[in-house]
Amino acid sequence: xxxxxxxxxxxxxxxxxxxxxxxxxxxxxxxxxxxxxxxxxxxxxxxxxxxxxxxxxxxxxxxxxxxxxxxxxxxxxxxxxxxxxxxxxxxxxxxxxxxxxxxxxxxxxxxxxxxxxxxxxxxxxxxxxxxxxxxxxxxxxxxxxxxxxxxxxxxxxxxxxxxxxxxxxxxxxxxxxxxxxxxxxxxxxxxxxxxxxxxxxxxxxxxxxx
Length: 210
Ligand code: B1M
Fold this sequence. Notes:
Helix content is 56%, strand content 10%. It has nine helices and five strands; from the N terminus they run ααααβαβαβαβαβα. It is globular, with a radius of gyration of 17 Å. It binds CO-5-methoxybenzimidazolylcobamide (B1M). Residues 41, 44-45, 47-48, 51-52, 58, 61-62, 65, 97-104, 106-107, 143-145, 147-150, 174-179, 194, 196-197, 200 line the site of CO-5-methoxybenzimidazolylcobamide (B1M).
């Protein structure tokens, strides 16, 4: 199935067409993963390129993001498996100063679909809130997302603050987002890095010994 209609609809920020073309692709038997990778993620990468080249500005990025959010709601049940018992608890959020949440939401969807209980703290999450929630919930994993080179350092402060808590010694911390990598994870003392939402599930499984 040709994903270019969806790809173009994402770039145009055409919410209705995004939703419609996802429904159509599913009806024609396209796999949810192909829709995600070849339509949505490819479309957002192009939006980023247009922004970098000065053809798009923040409002265009915002309408594209809103259209993708609606589309992900349609795709969500197809990306997830049904009837799975919780396999562990995960607190997730985008770090302080950072408002990007599409990648984080995708990671949440995939982890939830793999049977993990997700507590999503949203975007622009202060280090203190990560620690407060972790102390309240005793999660198996704290998952941090950042999309900006200016906010990725806030991950270091969360890792340090969680490590300072004796009662959270067993809690693993994972990071992800475009500007971060395995080296950065090692540097700040995180337990793992993943480049995308599918890898995040594999990483958490591995850290949980599954
Ligand atoms: Co922003 N933005 N943005 N933006 N934005 C980027 C990130 C940018 C690369 C664009 C560019 O210049 N090419 C650039 C960052 C440059 C840098 O720091 N190096 C940028 C900028 C500069 C900005 C502003 C500063 C612009 C301005 O105001 N002048 C501003 C900052 C606001 C803030 O956060 N304080 C800003 C604002 C925005 C919008 C609000 C308009 C909107 C976000 C809306 C929203 O998220 N609700 C937006 C968007 C849409 C983008 C781009 C175009 C798309 C991001 C996206 O959703 N990608 C982006 C360009 C790009 O990425 N090509 C850009 C799709 C998503 C599926 O991918 O988020 O990478 P991604 O997530 C992936 C992986 O990274 C990974 O898995 C996901 C799925 O596979 N992953 C994890 C992510 N988190 C993970 C966590 C994990 C594991 C994996 O474990 C915990």
